[in-house]
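Lecture notes, part 5. Sequence design as translation. It can be helpful to think of inverse folding as translation between two languages: the language of shapes and the language of residues. The source text, in structure tokens, appears below.
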């Protein structure tokens, strides 16, 4: 296994989705709770002001084993999270952190094991 990839699509998120500082606090809490090491500070930027239906913050937090990203929708109250790491992490803990910060468990989530084909697999397929 190269890595784990957790995607979480959440409805009915609270007002923290529209607060850049709250989003940065979430990133720091997620890094700590899933036992990762941040590589720099979280990058939190508001995008899409020209179209209210897509406007919202986007988060990127690099971690030494990959990244945590998310997009927060001002208009709809939806939030979309991705946690990818070549170090295993506890999915239930990650979900609990999301719920604690954004006040909703109305979600669909998936966990995928990521692994590129080996050199031998690629050669056999050719």
């Amino acid at each position: 296994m190269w890595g784990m990839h957790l995607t979480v699509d959440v409805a009915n998120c609270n007002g923290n989705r529209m607060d850049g500082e709250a989003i940065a606090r979430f990133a720091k809490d997620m890094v700590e709770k899933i036992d990762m090491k941040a590589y720099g500070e979280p990058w939190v930027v508001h995008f899409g002001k020209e179209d209210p239906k897509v406007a919202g913050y986007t988060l990127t937090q690099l971690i030494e084993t990959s990244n945590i990203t998310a997009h927060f929708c001002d208009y709809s109250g939806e939030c979309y999270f991705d946690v990818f790491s070549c170090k295993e992490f506890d999915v239930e803990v990650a979900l609990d952190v999301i719920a604690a910060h954004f006040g909703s468990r109305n979600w669909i989530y998936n966990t995928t094991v990521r692994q590129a084909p080996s050199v031998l697999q690629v050669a056999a397929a050719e």
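The translated text above is only one of many valid answers, since several sequences can fold into similar shapes. The mean pLDDT is 94.
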